[in-house]
Amino acid sequence: MTIYVKACVNGARTPDEHPDLPVSPEQLAEAALSAHHAGAQAVHMHPKTPDGKDSLDPDVVAAAVSAVRAAVPGLPLGVTTGFWALPDPDARRRAVEAWTVLPDFASLNWDEPGSPELAEVLLGKGIGVEVGLFNLAAAASWAESTMVEHCMRVMVELDGHEGVAVADAMLERIAAANSPAPVLLHGLDESCWPLLEHAGVCGLQTRIGMEDTLTLPDGSVTPDNAALVLAAVQLLSR
After folding, report:
1. Would the pLDDT of 2 be above 90?
2. Reduced to 3 states, what is the DSSP secondary structure of residue 208?
3. Residue 220 belongs to domain spanning
4. Within a 10 A sphere around the Cβ of 235, how many other Cβ atoms?
5. Number of independent structural domains in the chain
6. Count of Cβ atoms closer than 10 Å to residue 88 Cβ
7. What is the pLDDT of residues 121-138, one digit of tens each?
8. Buried b (16+ CB within 10 A) or exposed e, 179-214
9. What is the DSSP-derived secondary structure letter of residue 14?
10. What pLDDT sits at residue 13?
11. Contact between residue 237 and residue 206 where contact means Cβ atoms under 8 Å apart
12. DSSP strand pairing (153-157 vs 5-8)
């Protein structure tokens, strides 16, 4: 079985949640390199301002992407377009339109305002679109859109209280859309490790990192992203 693990190295978390959460471009580069050495085949990150807040500002994105590219040339690299980073559909679209140093792909939560329009912007810039689906309503909306054919990945992203039954219902709905894109399944906090294992059982792509959890399978706090990736690879290799 082929194992595909993407490292999600920081997410919308802030450094007060973990002292070694990567924030600066240099820290993101170090996290990406160590996660890749631990077995990650791609990296997803949230470019941040110095105080740890997510940013879609072209200069902030350029600095983060450039640093990771220099540290790990050729590693597929993605960034967030999360609405919380710039909660205005037009302003978010203009910010992404102004990106000059481009990631390979960007995550796009389908149920956020203005996401279908932002998807067109991303595709027009040659950036792959990872569609994030958090519930059945979002999956149904995506299934009726042109992004079924044009997204590079479909991500089933579940909250901590959701489990295998919800995942299976989502996966069934997505399969019915007949998208050529691979599917990635992951959870958050309490659901993170059970859904990672379920992704392995289902032969799906998955992800791990400080965005999704700060604890290892044994419940201890992880020292860094690389330890999470290594634990995921070992779990999926059983």
Report:
1. no
2. strand
3. 5-236
4. 17
5. 1
6. 12
7. 999 999 999 999 999 999
8. bebebbbbbbeebbbbbbbbbbebebbbbbbbbbbb
9. -
10. 96
11. no
12. unpaired
- For 15-71, write each residue's pLDDT tens digit: 999 999 999 999 999 999 999 999 999 999 999 999 999 999 999 999 999 999 999
Residue with tokens 């200069």: 59
Contact between residue 174 and residue 133 where contact means Cβ atoms under 8 Å apart: yes
Quickly list H helices, 11-88.
Answer: 25-38, 58-71
Tell me, what DSSP letter sits at residue 146? T
pTM passes above 0.85: yes
Distance of CA 23 to the CA centre of its chain: 16
Q: CA dist 166 to 62, 136, 144, 181, 236, Å?
A: 37, 9, 20, 20, 21
- In this predicted structure, the answer to whether residue 1 has a pLDDT above a threshold of 90 is no
Query: Which CATH number does the domain housing residue 165 bear?
Result: 3.20.20.70
- Beta-carbon contacts of 165 under 8 Å, excluding residues fewer than 6 positions away, are none
